[in-house]
Design a protein that fits this description.
Layout: H1 3-8, H2 46-51, E1 57-68, E2 71-82, E3 86-90, H3 97-103, E4 114-122, E5 125-126, H4 134-140, E6 141-144, H5 155-165, H6 172-182, H7 186-189, H8 202-214, E7 220-224, H9 232-245, E8 250-254, H10 258-264, E9 267-276, E10 279-289, H11 290-295, H12 300-306
Parallel strand pairs: 3-8, 3-9, 6-7, 7-8
Antiparallel strand pairs: 1-2, 1-4, 4-5, 9-10
Helix pairs in contact: 5-6, 5-8, 6-8, 8-9
The chain binds adenosine-5'-diphosphate and magnesium ion.
Length: 311
């Protein structure tokens, strides 16, 4: 995989070809919509469904099954991810958290054995629909990976790279500054923007990757264990950053760190490996408000996991 598609999901054949991405090609509507009364989805508590106004759904996954060849990685996942919130995906290793996260911006498409059944709507559009432009999908749904992966370029060029490639050339300095401020990195790097990004600490590199992702003003940020390679102080900085980005972006974060989920997420989804038939397969056990998942989960499997009783 090239650094390009690792970071932005821009297929290599489109790199440097801003024309493909002229505004006229935008097909997916993401402008603000009025809030909708939360419908009583299976995963919402009755009180919430009746008395609260839930933010609109950005993603609605319905009966999603994902396979790698003959192996089924996820079975029958249905969930709604709400606008402007932080949603955490937790669960033991191998239960399909990364697989699910990557299916939200079609990042798995490049895996030949990957196959998906069911439906994932993004603002009401089937994201796997035949007319969907995957470049546009990944422009709107940015991704940050477990290991910071800055380009071997200057700090400035890391942030300016995607906007340049997407034809967003106006006011580039302001855009770079805004993204670096947004990623809480500006004060640390403003005097050395021309220096190599590889000279930054791991925590700074990860914030740079977040700056790079937000420089193109996506709608959603997908974060796959963004702090797992970082020390506690850098992890705290990433968590503070997630708090500050919340509301501006819809954030979906995979973490194996339950305290982290409890600290940053509004809603938490617990996945587990369940044996159906012969083989274990990733299953969404419970999805609810974070306090509910950690304080009074409905399912004994969730309770065992969050209290550390899990095998
Ligand atoms: N590219 C792939 N090819 C084949 N199997 C895969 C691939 N990626 C993940 N898997 C399998 O899918 C299952 C779920 O993996 P993953 O989504 O990475 O889980 P998690 O992120 O929860 O640890 C695992 O059994 C894993 O081995
Ligand atoms: Mg993973």
């Amino acid at each position: 995989m090239s650094i390009d598609d690792q970071t932005f999901g821009v297929p290599p054949e489109t790199n440097g070809n801003g024309k493909r991405l002229a505004p006229g090609r935008v097909r997916i509507r993401t402008e603000p919509l009025p809030g909708v009364i939360g419908s009583p989805a299976a995963t919402e508590s009755a009180a919430e469904a009746h008395f609260h106004v839930a933010p609109e759904a950005v993603f609605e996954a319905d009966a999603v099954n994902i396979f790698y060849g003959s192996k089924q990685a996820l079975t029958d996942v249905s969930m709604r991810i709400r606008r402007g919130q932080v949603t955490a995906l937790i669960g033991p290793s191998g239960c399909g958290k990364t697989t699910f996260l990557r299916s939200l911006n079609r990042m798995n498409d490049s895996i030949p054995a990957f196959r998906i059944e069911g439906r994932i709507d993004y603002h009401g559009h089937d994201i796997y629909g035949s007319n969907v432009d995957t470049v546009e999908v990944r422009r709107r749904i940015g991704m940050v990976f477990q290991k910071p992966n800055p380009f071997p370029k200057s700090i400035y060029d890391n942030v300016a790279w995607a906007p340049k490639n997407l034809g967003m050339r106006q006011a580039m300095h302001e855009r770079v500054e805004k993204a670096l401020r947004g990623a809480a990195l500006w004060d640390e790097v403003k005097d050395r923007l021309k220096d190599s990004a590889l000279g930054l600490s791991g925590g700074q590199q990860q914030r740079l990757c977040i700056a790079r992702a937000i420089a193109i003003e996506p709608d959603v940020l997908l974060l796959d264990e963004p702090a797992s390679a970082l020390d506690p102080i850098a992890t705290g900085a990433i968590e503070d950053l997630i708090h500050s980005l919340k509301g501006r972006f819809t954030i979906c974060i995979v973490t194996h760190n339950m305290q982290q989920a409890a600290r940053v997420a509004d809603r938490t989804a617990f996945f587990s490996l369940e044996t159906r038939g012969e083989k274990p397969t990733g299953t969404l056990i419970e999805f609810d408000d974070t306090e509910k998942i950690f304080g009074s989960p409905r399912d004994p499997r969730t309770r065992d996991y969050v209290t550390g009783r899990f095998g």
